[in-house]
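Hi L.,

As promised, Pentraxin family member:
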Amino acid sequence: VLQTPLWLFLLHSYLHGKVFVFPKVTATAHVILKPRLAKPLWNVSVCLRFGCDLTRAYSLFSYATKAKNNDFLLFKPKPGSLSLYVGGEQVTFKVPEGTGTSTGWVHVCASWESATGIAELWVNGRPLPRKGLKKGYSVGNKGVLVLGQEQDTPGGKFDINQSFVGEITDVYMWDTLLSPDEVSLAMNNGVLPHVILDWRALSYETKDYVVIKPSLLPVY
């Protein structure tokens, strides 16, 4: 049995203080992430930090299954808005001006609860008014998770006009909801339980023109 060399394992696991750079518009560059999904998800929380100056639509976090290509999708349709898709259904949050940072980077946390259908969105630690969708639904556990592109089939059918150009870092996913205190901890890379995708111990694969670089932001 072939074993993965230790240096390769380390290269593909510890990204604290680093970012994925998507340097140019392309329909091919993306990162495949591999969360620990043993069963369907009745609760989902995702946090990430990104820097981007695009004014057109782009995908931030795309999880697709055979049943639903937008099983869990965080998507920015235009400036001042963020959309969350669960099971192919969409809600759009208006992001008030003034929730950005002096660096132009944005930290986003999105949570969804099956029992109530309630979706929460936090932008730089500030909660937006809650919305609801797909009450009673469960997000499938046999899907493909991609950064940098929006999937129309699992792992493919990318649209260059929805591609991400910029930098993404501090990506986390949990199978539970986040409290306000936990969102604050996540903003500062705090350790939270129930993590199924951990930036500090990440399993991933880069495709085409994606570069891993040290972050130019303060490292928490």
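The chain has one domain: 14-214.

Thanks again for sending the construct details.

K.
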